[in-house]
Amino acid sequence: MSHHIVLLPGDGIGPEITEPAVKMLKAVVADLEFEPHLFGGASIDAHGVALTDHTLDACRRADAVLLAAVGGPQWDTTDPSKPRPEQGLLGLRKGMGLFANLRPVRPVPALYGASPLKLEVIEHTDLLVVRELTGGIYFGEKTRTKDSASDACVYTREEIVRIARVAFGAARSRVTSVDKANVLETSRLWRETVHALHGDEYPHIELEHLLVDNAAMQLLAAPRHFDVILTENMFGDILSDEAAMLTGSIGMLPSASLGAQGPGLFEPVHGSAPDIAGTGAANPLAMFLSAALMLRHGLAMESEAAAIESAVDKALADGLRTPDLGGGATTAQATQAVLKNL
Question: Which of 340, 257, 336 is nearest to 20 (CA)?
Answer without folding.
Answer: 336
